[in-house]
Amino acid sequence: MQLTALSVQRVRKVRSLKIYPSTSVNCICGPNGSGKTSLLEAIHFLATARSFRTTKVRDVITHGEQSLLVNGEFIDSSGQLNRIGIEKTFDQTRLRLNGDAVVVASRLARVLPVLNFNSESFLLLSGGPSIRRSLVDRLMFHVEHRYLDTLKRYYRALKQRNMLLRARSAPREITAWDEQMLPEVTQLDLWRRNCVAAINEYLSVSPVSELIGKLQLEYYRGWNRDTDFSIVLSMNLDRDRESGTTTLGPHRAELRVKIDEKMAKSVVSRGQGKLIIAAIVGAQAKYLSENSSEKPILLIDDLAAELDRNARLIAVDSLLGTDSQIFFTAIDFKDLPNHILESAKVFHVEQGQTQPVVIAQ
User: Are 148 and 106 in contact (CB under 8 A)?
Assistant: First the structure.
């Protein structure tokens, strides 16, 4: 997947601009508050119909305006040119793909996969289990087209079971939903385990592991791995009825990010944490490239901050090795390693306007 044209209107400080990115590496440079991150945010809108910075569209639409508009052109894995667009007002979203209206945003997400590296990415280490669980769910959404429907069926059954638990319904009514959940649980757990195992294969050869220790994701499926889930539901029925919720299952699954068998968040510095996240993003990109129909676009915000020169080289190489289209932001293009700039297309952003920069070789 390669984005070849991007038009942005009324997104934060960016009132109107159009760029034609490189299909490999792009650097978006400029002072703080100039609109660099807003360009990444606009690409994210194209792919997901939402921001990675806020859930409130009012915060994204340029002050004094009533809507935002983002259009893009991209080349898919078959070489076909596609056009995609999104318009958002305070209370409405309109999506289009190749001229046709799109009702469900997940259709855009499937054709235009993106991976983010930004200030929110540190939640992968310090945030709650749902953040790390969603990492696997997003990957599987692109790799296995049955995954989303399976996940939805599981959560529908889980919702019904929880309603009956809260109502203190008869056990036979509750166990009827147990039977509905079991096939979905088995399949979800298998997909998730295989995904994490593949990610760990990529992490095992990451230069980050050589620098700060063995990096791996530890998968906990949401209940004891040695016990069949049907037995878990039966054994915990009284406790679940008392608490009014299903206490174990795939909705409680967790990923633990570890360095040399220790929780990474407890043993690494802020800069090392950034290296870890770069390695994980790179591993995700390689996994998608090898197992899905489209390579992801990487949106990398302010990579250089808090990293010394050697760490920047390692982080960048972890991302360049994915062979994906990448958008880096930086205050100054010189903050990025020279070997990026040799082949990158560089844009300078100032007060929401951008122009290409020619780098002297």
Answer: yes
Examine the fold and report which residue of 293, 322, 337 is the final residue of a domain before the chain moves on. 293
Q: Does one domain contain both 286 and 303? A: no
Q: Report d(CA 136, CA 147) in Å as an integer.
A: 11
Radius of gyration of the chain (CA): 22
Per-residue DSSP letters for 6-72?
Answer: EEEEEETTEEEEEE---SSEEEEE-STTSSHHHHHHHHHHHHHSS-SS-S-HHHHBPTT-SEEEEEE
Could you tell me if 8 and 75 lie in one domain? yes
Q: What is the pLDDT of residues 204-221, one digit of tens each?
A: 988 888 888 899 999 999
> How does pLDDT run across 245-302, given as a tens digit for each residue?
999 999 999 999 999 999 998 888 888 889 999 999 999 999 999 998 888 999 999 8
CATH number at residue 90: 3.40.50.300
Question: Which residues fall within 8 angstroms of residue 137, CB to CB, at 6 or more apart?
Answer: 147, 151
Contact criterion met (CB below 8 Å) for 327 and 300: yes
Write out the two tokens for 291.
Answer: 């197992």
What is the per-residue pLDDT across 39-49, written as a single tens digit (0 to 9) for each? Answer: 999 999 888 88
Is the pLDDT reported for residue 1 higher than 80? no
Q: CATH code at 163?
A: 1.20.1050.90
Distance, first Cα to last Cα, the chain? 29
Please return the burial class of 64, using the count of CB atoms within 10 Å of its CB with bins 0-12, 13-18 and 19+. Answer: exposed
Name every residue whose Cβ is closer than 8 Å to that of residue 116 and which is 6 or more positions away in sequence.
Answer: 40, 44, 52, 281, 299, 301
Structure tokens at 127: 């945030």
Could you tell me if 74 and 148 lie in one domain? no
Please give the tally of structural domains in the chain: 2
Contacts of 307 (CB under 8 A, 6+ apart): 271, 274, 275, 315
Q: 296 by DSSP, 3-state: which?
A: coil
